[in-house]
Design a protein that fits this description.
The chain is built from 23 helices and six strands. It has a two-stranded antiparallel sheet with strand order 1-2. A two-stranded antiparallel ribbon has the order 3-4. It starts with a helix and ends with a helix. The radius of gyration is 23 Å and the shape is globular. The protein folds into two domains: about 80 residues, no CATH class; about 325 residues, ADP-ribosylglycohydrolase fold (Orthogonal Bundle).
Length: about 475
């Protein structure tokens, strides 16, 4: 076998100069124009963009500083950095726009710890072992792994896809504005489609498990990200950059990633509950492994929380009990654990979802709408007050606002995994049918039923 240097030398030896026109400036211009435009557009989006589904306004650089400060740090000269960057965009100063992104990320990376910040009053769980020691998991329950497994997984997948399609046009807004805008929350607000970044990462995970089974590692899942997913946002964007630079999990999740406690891991936890039905410990462990690709500490706990709830849905028939069980498996001394317990306390204190939600919205107002905390509260409240009514479940998610599609997708998975396909009214099903459209390379169009069969087959392999 040829050495690598020999392969490269062979290429050189087989090449010969070709006659070229005297001025090849046009070639240089064509070569550089495409990448330059793409990079300029991307960097501009960091300063001012609109969410594809809802057109909510975002400034990811301001959000990076916000997220860093939520984690108990002080970002030096934060306000000037943001204002300078926004001014560069407004003035069409492309060089200044690029420089501004670098300066913000550098400032976040070099932020100084504020010992008085509330963040440091909670324990940070950096690995699964320390997390598992802090909680107690119920024993796994033997589950029918035959056709009924496929049926329940299909119900969960379909519900998740419906939830995403329902919520995507409402994400990024606060409750009062949503309630003023939409007279009804119990319908699709526009013609639904199934494109959704949440599902993208779940499909990548499924592919890794199909290839590797019980031997699957975070590296295997990360490789599917690199090869299958063309772009990401917030935490996933930073993780993809890290992975392509050779940083593996868990470094890929926390290095230079101010968004590492946002919703990106929490939004993809349901599939781990499907792969480990009625086995919350294994679902939690797998969720931790997946979560640390792009997140850290409390951000990973968000994925664990949804994986546990989905896993429990295979053995429980009471949503409120399932929520309480999952909360019991969130460490009480973690900030995430305190968050979901705060939401649960509001559920028990109030008689309707809106009265329970308003204290949560106020409590977590300093967090971005893509952060895990306010959205975890919305999940707890939706499951607690939905009264076994799928439409009401979605309506509550819509009314809470925040990252609606992520929340609706995850809790709908829990709901319909527990109660089956018949729990989803025909109105919600008919616009979706059996088709899932994605932007995952090699999986652009999928049958939802076939996806359920594939997921069930992986679950059986993991159960052997």
């Amino acid at each position: 076998m040829m050495k690598v240097w020999e392969i490269e030398r062979k290429h050189m030896d087989e090449s010969a100069p070709i006659a070229m026109e005297d001025d090849n400036a046009k070639i240089w211009e064509e070569q550089s124009e495409g990448p330059e435009k793409a990079q300029d557009a991307l960097v501009s989006n960091y300063w001012a963009s609109k969410v594809p589904g809802s057109r909510a306004q975002e400034c990811m650089m301001a959000a990076a500083i916000q997220a860093t400060e939520n984690r108990g740090y002080v970002v030096a000269d934060a306000e000037h950095l943001v204002l300078d960057g926004l001014r560069a965009v407004a003035d069409g100063n492309v060089v200044g726009t690029h420089e501004g992104v670098y300066k913000v990320l550098e400032a976040c990376r070099n932020a100084t710890k504020d010992p008085s910040a509330p963040y440091w009053k909670s324990r940070l769980y950096d690995d699964f072992a320390s997390y598992a020691e802090a909680v107690s998991f119920p024993a796994a329950v033997k589950t029918d792994m035959g056709k009924s497994l496929v049926d329940r997984i299909e119900a969960g997948w379909l519900a998740q896809i419906i939830g995403g399609a329902y919520g995507t046009c409402m994400e990024g807004y606060a409750t009062d504005n949503i309630l003023r805008t939409y007279p009804r929350l119990d319908i699709y607000q526009r013609k639904p489609n199934t494109y959704n970044d949440d599902i993208t990462y779940e499909l990548a995970l499924l592919l890794a498990y199909e290839k590797n089974g019980k031997a699957t590692t975070g590296h295997d899942i990360a490789m599917e990200w690199i090869t299958r997913i063309s772009f990401g946002w917030s935490a996933e964007d930073m993780a993809l950059r890290n992975l392509k630079a050779g940083l593996l999990p868990p470094e890929s999740g926390h290095f230079n990633n101010p968004y590492c406690e946002w919703i990106g891991a929490q939004m993809r936890g349901a599939i781990l509950g499907q792969l480990y039905p009625a086995n919350p410990r294994m679902a939690a462990q797998a969720a931790w492994m997946d979560g640390e690709i792009s997140h850290a500490t409390n951000g990973i706990l968000g994925e664990v929380f949804n994986a546990i709830m989905t896993s429990l849905a295979f053995s429980q028939n009471d949503l409120s009990k399932t929520v309480e069980m999952a909360i019991d498996m969130m460490p009480a001394d973690s900030e995430y654990g305190k968050c979901v317990r705060f939401a649960l306390a509001q559920c028990k204190k109030h008689s309707d979802w809106l009265s329970a939600w308003k204290p949560c919205e106020k409590e977590y107002e300093r967090y971005n709408w893509v952060h895990a905390y306010p959205n975890a509260c919305a999940e707890v409240i939706a499951l607690w007050f939905c009264e076994k009514d799928f439409t009401k479940l979605l309506s509550i998610c819509g009314g809470c606002g925040q990252d609606v599609d992520c929340n609706a997708a995850q809790v709908a998975t829990v709901f319909s995994t527990m109660y089956g396909l018949d729990s989803i009214p025909e109105y919600w099903k008919e616009s979706i049918g059996d088709r899932l459209d994605t932007y995952v390379r090699g999986l652009k169009v999928l049958s939802i039923h076939h996806l359920a069969e594939r997921t069930a087959e992986v679950a059986r392999r993991l159960d052997d």
